[in-house]
Design a protein that fits this description.
The protein has a single domain, classed as TIM Barrel. The chain is built from 16 helices and 14 strands. The protein has helices at 25-28, 48-51, 55-65, 77-80, 205-215, 232-235, 239-242, 248-254, 278-285, 290-302, 329-347, 397-400, 402-406, 417-426, 446-456, 482-492, and strands at 2-7, 14-19, 162-163, 168-169, 179-180, 191-195, 217-218, 221-225, 259-264, 309-312, 355-358, 381-383, 431-436, 461-467. The strands form 4 sheets. The protein has an 8-stranded parallel beta barrel with strand order 6-8-9-10-11-12-13-14. A two-stranded antiparallel sheet has the order 1-2. Strands 3-4 form a two-stranded antiparallel ribbon. It is globular.
């Protein structure tokens, strides 16, 4: 998947998604000259002229073109045009003792089946399946976790209309018109979050009520992006809370259950150097940037956002990111240490109750998850972004089935949904899918929604967020994908 960002009206905080590329030039927006080496994680990036990306981001893409990375012959075949390596079963983890089978998906004609056994592995972790279309609201398993206790938010449902005379009295609360989506916690909270269009960066109750009318979910957590930020002054003071007219502060103040899921790079774009990330990783590793992390935390707390779920260094295994983890063992080690430094600084601020998500991306080269994992003391949740295209085959779940999609049709790839979820289980951390959605130009795919739901309803699942901004080639829920929307409502509404 190639990450494509779009600027908001403020020109600083920019939100975006992954165009899970499909071999269509209009989707990828990649010039013919921009190709990747075999196994590159993201050497080919978006055409920055078309997308209006910053000059710094364009420089990142230029440096990535000259970088020789990876060794896998199947990675990023969507850009090279080579066929993916088919596989079956679950991914055998690098330095892991746990395997996880693809969750069974109702209505699937292809058996999920267990994956290949790993020497000395513990028993396979099974994941409950999602409800079938038209079912009632699923029964949620009681979470079992050793993490920090979660917060349960009670929601009052609208009272039913009762008529005892010729006069009928109806009481309703527009913001409580759907099922409570829940609040994210460091355990099996199974929260249902959403990324909205937020025109001009503004969040409003009207937007949330509109999506609730479609899905039946009363969303308590909303996702947005503060990255990339040009300078430290922008990085430490994210636009949603710096610009009060955008309404984020007011929305948080409406209810203690309201929560923002925030994408934040480890550094501002001014420091990026994907050709030699040690230029910023080593100073960060030594604590040189802790002052900025402290200021970021203080600003969030002051804005009433002390409960923010922070996707720090999101998708850093993708070469399109300004805080790309790097290829060498030293680069990956120092990236993890930088993460640790910033988390430690932010947690030390009074009033900070942040949850930190370590968030690799699927569809990148195999770096070995353990090589750049910051450590259990610094990570609350492990997540993976997973849009509806297998990056080896360019096929949707409807085309190839959930089991093949779940492993990216490559059982040797650490950057698959199965590998990352199994890694989370091995670390005893709750799993999340912070970004997911269907790609424009492909068939309505309820099987994909049911597959995501099969993970989202497991007892150790933290949260998921559908990318419903109507941007970056991701289809919005509603009339554009009626079958998938019906499946979404059946699973989460």
């Amino acid at each position: 998947m190639v990450r494509v960002r779009r600027s908001d009206r403020h020109g600083v905080g920019r939100r975006g998604t992954l165009a899970r590329a499909v071999g269509i030039s209009a989707l990828l927006l990649v010039p013919a000259t921009m190709t990747t080496s075999t196994g590159a994680s993201g050497g080919a990036g978006p055409n920055t002229g078309i997308l209006g990306a910053t000059e710094a981001f364009a420089q990142v893409i230029t440096t990535l073109q000259s970088r020789v990375v990876g060794a896998s012959t199947s990675a990023f075949s969507l850009l090279t045009g080579e066929a993916g390596v088919p596989g079956s079963g679950a991914r055998q983890l690098h330095e892991s003792t746990t395997t996880i089978a693809p969750p069974a998906v109702p209505g699937s004609t292809t058996p999920a089946g267990p994956g290949p056994a790993t020497a000395g592995a513990t028993p396979t972790v099974s994941v409950p399946s999602a409800p079938t279309l038209g079912s009632t609201t699923p029964t949620t398993a009681v979470p079992s976790t050793t993490s920090t206790p979660t917060t349960t938010v009670a929601t009052t449902q609208p009272p039913s209309t009762t008529s005892t005379t010729t006069t009928t009295t109806t009481t309703s609360e527009p913001q409580q018109s759907g099922v409570n989506g829940g609040t994210v916690g460091a355990g099996g909270t199974q929260a249902v979050c959403i990324e909205l269009a937020n025109p001009g960066g503004v969040i409003s109750d009207a937007q949330l009520q509109a999506i609730t009318a479609v899905t039946g979910v009363n969303y308590q957590c909303v996702e947005t992006f503060a990255n990339p930020a040009p300078q430290w002054t922008d990085w430490e003071d994210p636009w949603p809370f710096r610009i009060t007219s955008d309404g984020w502060d007011a929305w948080l103040a409406e209810s203690p259950a309201h929560q923002v899921v925030l994408g934040e790079d480890l550094i501002p774009s001014a420091l990026t150097n994907n050709n030699d990330p040690l230029t910023w990783e080593q100073p960060c590793d030594a604590g040189a940037y802790n002052q900025y992390a402290t200021q970021l935390a203080e600003n969030l707390v002051a804005a009433g956002a002390g409960n923010t779920v922070i996707r720090l260094g999101l998708e850093a295994n993708g070469g399109w990111e300004i805080d790309y983890v790097g290829q060498t063992a030293q680069e990956q080690h120092d990236w993890a240490m930088c993460y640790d430094q910033e988390v430690t600084a932010m947690r030390a601020v009074a009033g900070a109750h942040f949850l930190f998500v370590w968030n690799p991306n699927t569809c990148t080269n195999d770096l070995g998850l353990a090589n750049w994992y910051p450590g259990n003391d610094y990570v609350d949740i492990i997540g993976a972004d997973a849009y509806d295209l297998d990056c080896n085959t360019n096929e949707t779940v409807a085309q190839e089935g959930w089991p093949n999609y779940y492993i990216d049709s490559n059982a040797q790839n650490d950057a698959s949904l199965s590998a990352i979820s199994a890694f989370a289980a091995a670390q005893n951390k709750p799993f999340a899918i912070p970004e997911w959605g269907e790609v424009t130009g492909y068939t309505d795919d309820p099987a994909y929604v049911r597959g995501i739901a099969s993970l989202a309803h497991s007892s150790d699942f933290s949260f998921q967020s559908y990318f419903d901004c109507g941007c970056d080639n991701i289809v919005q829920l509603g009339s554009s994908e009626p079958q998938s929307t019906t499946a979404y409502v059946a699973a989460f509404g």
